[in-house]
């Protein structure tokens, strides 16, 4: 609820608390009778909305304040990340109807991509109620017999459609960039969603399978998730560490506190940090790491939003999270990496091993992946640019001294 002064509160219904399996909505919203005040409630629910300029554009389109997540989610919160769906009080949850499905042929896809650039998340379009976090244009869709469908009324989606980034001249070929980075993550053993490149009027777009949706008995089931800013009650506008957002230590701590397998998840998180360093993903902030909730048990989610930003010289070269106190990749030495873990022989040995293995593996698989994609007819100059970044940074890590 939102009170007269604009403060948000969240309270679990007593019936839910007394049910057989009452699972918390967030690690920051533990099961309790008392209400959660604005300090905890606002960051969690704001986390379902787009970030930065995307939110501003969304608010302008819907004619509400960008600082009012309650009003925004009332309009677009039917299909959010995870298993959350929001409805006005008294309205029953949406029951899927065949009328919800709009299969998109190529001319329709062209129109949807054009609309996305004017209307974030297609907000304001007839009965479209979905919200996704992030700063890029995107929309949730469903894949039906390999055809893309736009879903209405808050019906669950299965994929995320991302068009080319065109509003920033400094970023070129974002589609092949993200596709390569997602594929490469899988090749080095980091769980990442499956993605494919498709085209509408010769313009590529990325179709990414949602890991928070599964098909069970021909029914799409929502899996709940929350990003680390939501888990730590940090507003999305403060997602960067230098603005008060989570750092690597905060992320490792929240994994330790809540994951059902803290040590494997912490090791996986450190591998992702090393991988992001190698590919030059300087924009890996607190909203790009998440927990999955399954039957009340918490574990780390697959990696997502992977983009080599270092290939674009006009973008900020500083990383979103410090490594051992340093934001600039070229200032990081072995002693800075070792500050990421506790000062024990076991922790340091584990990290040293990853620092030895990940650069060689990532470089090897990147070269193989580039050649494989070229053979299959998918090629882009961005692949070579990413490979150059990986070579430079792999050599740097492997030559590090205290």
Radius of gyration, in Å, reads 21 Å
Q: Decide which structural class fits the backbone.
A: alpha+beta
Chain-averaged pLDDT = 91
CATH class of one domain: Mainly Alpha
Major beta sheet, strand line-up: 1-3-2-4-6-5
Unreliable residue runs: none
Task: Count up the helices.
Answer: 12
Helix percent reads 25-40%
Strand content: 5-15%
What do these coordinates show?
With 402 residues, the protein is α+β, with helices and mostly antiparallel strands. It is 36% helix and 13% strand. α6 (174-187) crosses α11, α8 packs antiparallel against α9 (262-279) and α9 (262-279) packs across α11.
Keywords:
alpha+beta; Phosphatidylinositol 3-kinase Catalytic Subunit, Chain A, Domain 5
Give the SSE map:
Blueprint: H1 14-17, H2 38-46, H3 52-62, H4 69-76, E1 101-103, H5 106-118, E2 139-144, E3 147-151, E4 159-163, H6 174-187, E5 195-200, E6 203-209, E7 213-216, E8 219-222, E9 224-227, H7 228-231, H8 248-258, H9 262-279, E10 290-294, E11 297-300, H10 334-338, H11 345-375, H12 381-398
Antiparallel strand pairs: 1-3, 2-3, 2-4, 4-6, 5-6, 7-8, 9-10, 10-11
Helix pairs in contact: 6-11, 8-9, 9-11, 11-12
């Amino acid at each position: 609820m939102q009170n007269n002064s604009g403060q948000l509160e969240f309270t679990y219904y007593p019936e839910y608390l007394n049910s057989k399996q009452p699972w918390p909505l967030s690690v920051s919203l533990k099961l309790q009778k008392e209400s959660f005040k604005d300090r905890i409630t606002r960051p969690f629910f704001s986390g379902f909305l787009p970030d930065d300029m995307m939110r501003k554009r969304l608010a302008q389109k819907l004619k509400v304040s960008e600082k009012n997540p309650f009003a925004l989610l009332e309009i677009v919160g039917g299909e959010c990340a995870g298993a959350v769906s929001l409805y006005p009080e008294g309205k029953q949850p949406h029951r899927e109807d065949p009328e919800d499905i709009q299969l998109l042929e190529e001319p329709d896809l062209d129109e949807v991509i054009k609309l996305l650039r004017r209307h974030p998340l297609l907000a304001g379009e007839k009965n479209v109620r979905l919200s996704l976090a992030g700063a890029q244009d995107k929309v949730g869709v469903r894949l039906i017999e390999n055809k893309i469908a736009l879903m209405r009324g808050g019906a669950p989606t299965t994929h995320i459609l991302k068009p080319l980034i065109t509003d920033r001249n400094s970023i070129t070929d974002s589609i092949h960039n993200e596709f390569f980075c997602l594929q490469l993550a899988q090749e080095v053993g980091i769980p990442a969603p499956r993605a494919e490149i498709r085209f509408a009027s010769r313009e590529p777009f990325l179709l990414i399978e949602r890991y928070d949706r599964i098909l069970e008995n021909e029914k799409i089931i929502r899996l709940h998730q929350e990003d680390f800013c939501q888990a730590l009650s940090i507003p999305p506008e403060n997602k960067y560490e230098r603005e008060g957002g989570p750092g690597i230590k905060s992320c490792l701590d929240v994994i330790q506190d809540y994951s059902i397998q803290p040590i494997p998840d912490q090791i996986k998180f450190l591998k992702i940090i090393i991988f992001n360093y190698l590919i030059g993903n300087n924009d890996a902030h607190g909203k790009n790491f998440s927990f999955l909730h399954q039957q009340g048990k918490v574990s780390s989610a697959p990696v997502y939003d992977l983009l080599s930003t270092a290939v674009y010289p006009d973008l900020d070269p500083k990383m979103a999270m410090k490594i051992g106190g340093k934001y600039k990749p070229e200032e990081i030495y072995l002693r800075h990496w070792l500050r990421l873990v506790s000062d024990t022989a076991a922790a340091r040995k584990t990290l040293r091993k990853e620092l030895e293995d990940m650069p060689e593996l990532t470089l090897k698989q990147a070269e193989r992946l580039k050649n494989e994609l070229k053979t299959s007819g998918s090629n882009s100059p961005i692949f070579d640019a990413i490979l150059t970044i990986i070579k430079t940074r792999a050599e740097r890590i492997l030559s590090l001294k205290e």
